[in-house]
Each structure stands twice: as C-alpha cells, then as structure tokens.
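dumping this here before i forget
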Amino acid sequence: MKQLLNRQFLAFLMTGGSAAAVNFFSRILYNQWLSFSVSIGLAYLTGMITAFVLARMFVFTESQQPIHHSAMFFVLVNLVAVVQTWIISIGLASYILPAMGMESFKHEIAHAVGVAVPVFTSYFGHKRWSFR
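structure:
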C-alpha cells in the first residue's frame, strides 16, 4: 500500500490520467468513422503512445533501460491492459448497462470504466519491466 502513496505513483496517475483523456476523447473522434470496437483499439494505441512519452519524461526518470527495451516491455504490459479495457468496455456497453436500462451514453460510461481498470496492473508492470 505504501507504494501506492508515493510521488512516483501520483505522477503515474497524473500522466496516466492525461493519456487516458487522450484515449477517451480520441475514441469519440475515431467513432465518427469507425465502429465502437475498432475505435477502442485505435484510441488505446493513441493513449499508449502518449502514456509512454509522459511516463518516460515525468514518472520513471531514473530508468537506465534502453528506450527500445522500455518500449517493448511497455507494449507487452499494455497488451494485457488493452484486453482488460476491451473486455470491460464491450461487456458493459453490450450487456450490463443495457440490462440496467441505461442506453444514454452507454459507450462513454463503458469506455471510461474500461480505461480506468488497468491503472494498478499497468503501474506495477511498467515499474517492474518497462522502466526498471
């Protein structure tokens, strides 16, 4: 629990929040031309690139790992996170929210929850592998 209250985790939350906002709003933009499912994937990629740059610059500044190793592990950690995001977003939008009678903004709500869930798994994955 102490690891979650340090400066590095708070910086991760701030940079991750910025990347999540890029992810969220780019999904809305992509969804103007593409399906919800495809838009989630493209938005996640857009957010992931943003997250990598911000994490390297502001969170894991002590990393001695070469950038190509960091990028490779960053992608691997985020592959796990994108699966989490996709399953949660589709599950909420297609099944859970409609079953609760929620049709208005169901895609936005589902995607916001889907983006928020992998915060903790991503932090520990990036700390341990991407930017060690």
